[in-house]
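Exercise 3.2. Students should predict the tertiary structure of the chain below and write it as C-alpha cells, then compare their answer with the key that follows.

Predict this chain's 3D structure.
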Amino acid sequence: MTDVSTANPRRAEILAAAAELFARRGFHGTSIGDLGRALGLTGPALYRHFRGKEAVLAEMLVDISERLRAEGVRRAAAPDPSAALDALLDWHISFALDNPALITVHERELDNVPEPQRHQVRRVQRGYVEEWVGVLRRLRPDEPEPRIRAAVHACFGLLNSTPYSAAGLDRPAMAELLHTMGRAALVC
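Answer key:
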C-alpha cells in the first residue's frame, strides 16, 4: 500500500479538496472545473494527475480503505484483546473525527466508483471488519461469530456518524463518548 500523501503531495492535495467538495456538493454536483478552481488550477490541468472525476473518487476511497485496514491490522495484533479493541476504537474514532468529509463521501458516493475499484474497496473493507471480528472473538470466544460481525457493523455506524453528531462537543469529549459507546456496543 502506498500512502498517497507521501508518494505524491499534489495528488493528496487534489484528493483532499475533492473530498471536501464531494461531501458538500455531491459527486454529481462537482465538476472538474470546480475542483480545479478550489486548487487554483484549471480543470484540464487536473488531467495531468487523474483521468477524470471518477478516478479521483476511486483513488480517494481505495486509499482510505487501505489506510484503515493497514492500521487496523497493526492495532489488532496487540497480544491483549482488550487493549487491541481499545486501540482499534481509538484509531477509528480519530480517523472519523479528523476526516468527516471522507466519511460522508464514502457513505454517499461509493456507488459512483467504477466496478473494479468499488470491488477493491469492499474487499479491503471486509478485511478491516475481520480484524475487529478477530479481536472480539479472542475477547469473547463463546459469542457467535454472526453476532460479533453484526456488532462490528453497528459500531461502525455509530463511529461514522461523526459528520452529523460531533458538532456539539469538543474533540476530546466526543472521542471519549464514542469510545465508551463503541466499547459498550461491542462487548455487551
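Discussion points: The chain has a mean pLDDT of 93. The CA atoms of residues 115 and 181 lie 35 Å apart.
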